[in-house]
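pls ignore typos typing on phone
S-adenosylmethionine + seq
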Amino acid sequence: MNTAPIRPAAIVRDADGTPRSADYGDLYHPRGGALAQARHVFLNGDGLAERWRGRERFVVLETGFGLGNNFLATWSAWRADPQRCRQLHFLSIEATPPSQADFRAAARDPALAPLAAELADRWPPLTWNLHRRSFDADRVELLLAFGDIAAWLPQLVARVDAFFLDGFAPARNPAMWDGRLFKAMARLAAADATVATWTAARAVRDGLRSAGFVVEAAAGSGGKRDITRARFAPRFTPRPAPRQAMLAPSAKPAWRSTPAGGATRPVVIVGAGLAGCALAGALAERGRSSLLLERQDDVAREGSGNAAGLFHGVVHRIDGRHARFHRAAASAARDAVQEAIRAHGVRGSVAGLLRVEFGATGRDALQAIVDALGLPPDCVQALDAKGASELAGVPLSAPAWHHPHGGWVDPRGLARAALARAGGQAELRTGCAIASLRHEAGEWLLLDETGVTVAAADAVALCNAGGAFDLLGGAPWPVERQRGQTSGIAVTHLPANAIPRLPLTGVGYALPAIDGTVWFGASAQWNDSDAAVRPADHLDNLERLARLVGLPAWAPRIGLDDIDGRTGFRWQSRDRLPIIGAVPAALAVVAGFAGPATAPRRLDQPRLVPRAPGLFVFSALGSRGIASSTLGAQLLAAAIAGAPSPVEADLLDAVDPARFLVRRFRHDDASRQNPSPLFVQPPVGPMAGSAGA
Ligand SMILES: Cc1cc2nc3c(=O)[nH]c(=O)nc-3n(C[C@H](O)[C@H](O)[C@H](O)COP(=O)(O)OP(=O)(O)OC[C@H]3O[C@@H](n4cnc5c(N)ncnc54)[C@H](O)[C@@H]3O)c2cc1C
Ligand SMILES: C[S@@+](CC[C@H](N)C(=O)[O-])C[C@H]1O[C@@H](n2cnc3c(N)ncnc32)[C@H](O)[C@@H]1O
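k done
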């Protein structure tokens, strides 16, 4: 996927104040006003009030977010309607978004101004991502796809109820109206989807018709003679691929991942660490209840039990899946941490983070990457050692990335806050260890070690770190366990210029003082299951800290008795990305799931791999679980609830539990010739470390 830098819109104003694009030479809305057009052409044109009435969720896809007036008008109408749907999702694609200042400064109808101000305060950085903002207690979700429409359309995973086509005039802006748009609309359209647009251009009407829409002209307003409305009525409905089927409960394909019994039973979540708690919160946001089964006597006692940890994005000269996933994840983490601090008093900060680049020749080398990627300063900045030292309050010896929206948090507090967010929608049962999983009579049974059924469910999410792979038979998963030890020293034992004001990372990490202690670390050992805190690891951590804060001389003088510590284990996949999504049918056979008799002919894309209905895994968060659990939970909750995916298809593939099987299919001639053995047998050999886990 090509992720070109995002350029801000060049907006000028006509004499009457109407905003015009300097790039396209066209108006953002008619002179009669944005709200009048939004209401007549889009809200009425798509019949929103009648169509969202009483529904669980309603999904709008807009082409061209522009100044956001159509979104604001839709949100405002939703707010005012007592019979509105429970949840409104508004996806919008925009190649050249306004800067935050331009968005804030845009003239608004008084009815929309307060909503615009709310969005302006949370305006996303101009990066190639699907930026998620939610409002009104998470009942309104805005997903803003920044980037060119041609690149974004194949990346959206959603069932769309209403399309708003709002590019500039087709003659000036043909990219917004070409054949790919109409084809993509047919792929994304829900059974009764409608389309509204202000244009009456023949090419647009023909394009809609050719994609299976029935088109009609309607009376225009604001100087337009007629406008276009359309309804999806295809002559045949192609069977959706398994992943798209997750979003199409009415389609009833042979292999679905949505739970068979509908949405009434709670989703059972095994494990209440960061992953499990974040999932419970994200499910509640999407109207689903959950039951968490946790073997410890409280949440976040294992991998997520450190005193604190940090979160930040990743910058890489190739803006690939890894960098994009972690940029999106860091943004979601920041929102969650900010909310946890505000609403629940969790210890943490979103005031920024520095990643020291010991290998870099100087700031210019970092700046060249920022320039090539076009990353804006509110996403990341390249600093020289002096500038970074001033921010950090310690003498750093190398240039650094400054992530202004990175930070640190107490992960236990973050997990509790996510659970609290779910409120009555989530029930936590502690002291409850799940020993096995069975698929019987169309439902999933969770059993304890005596073989007693603890819970039965239509949908189960395995969020129990390495235990998830044990429940799924262990060996096929390319995951490894890594031991890690953190160390903590009271500030009274440290020189003042060794205590950073911002979290630092580079060689290990160091956090600002938390309740009088500076936490740092962490060691990383494969094939090591020793849970004890080891003096030798404290010494290693001290060396890292000394190097990180640029003070090599003092570290050896600290006594080991002065150091506190904790050991934990990180589960990591071979490609260093988490494993999140529906479990491939082949890998659920171990739980008694009767897979299909024959494999599909093609398994070269994760989205084509058949799944075990209602069985999900969310694990292998590695050393970035604080950073990635919020986004991971959102994407999984969206899949379970049938809501639009908050990440692009490309990233769903990148974390998909089926990706290892797909790689095997792609790279092994024999598997391509005959995928059946691959499909019904464990597809991937274990990594060296998984045996002793
Ligand atoms: C030393 C160290 C430092 C780290 N620093 C950072 C950092 O700075 N930033 C960052 O982003 N990440 C960091 N991480 C990683 C992060 O902590 C993990 O990725 C994250 O905590 C994993 O969360 P989880 O919910 O997947 O696993 P866990 O927190 O381990 O949760 C799994 C839960 O499942 C329960 N469970 C397991 N099996 C069963 C069963 N059979 N039945 C019932 N319950 C079960 C467990 O008791 C546990 O509560 C660090 C990790 C370590 C070890
Ligand atoms: C008429 S304006 C949209 C107005 C907007 N719906 C509103 O309510 O304010 C058209 C928008 O389409 C965007 N656009 C034009 N070409 C594009 C492309 N190729 N990909 C994505 N967006 C594009 C423009 O930047 C512009 O913001």
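Residues 247-262, 681-693 have pLDDT under 50 and may be disordered. The two ends are 36 Å apart (CA to CA). more later
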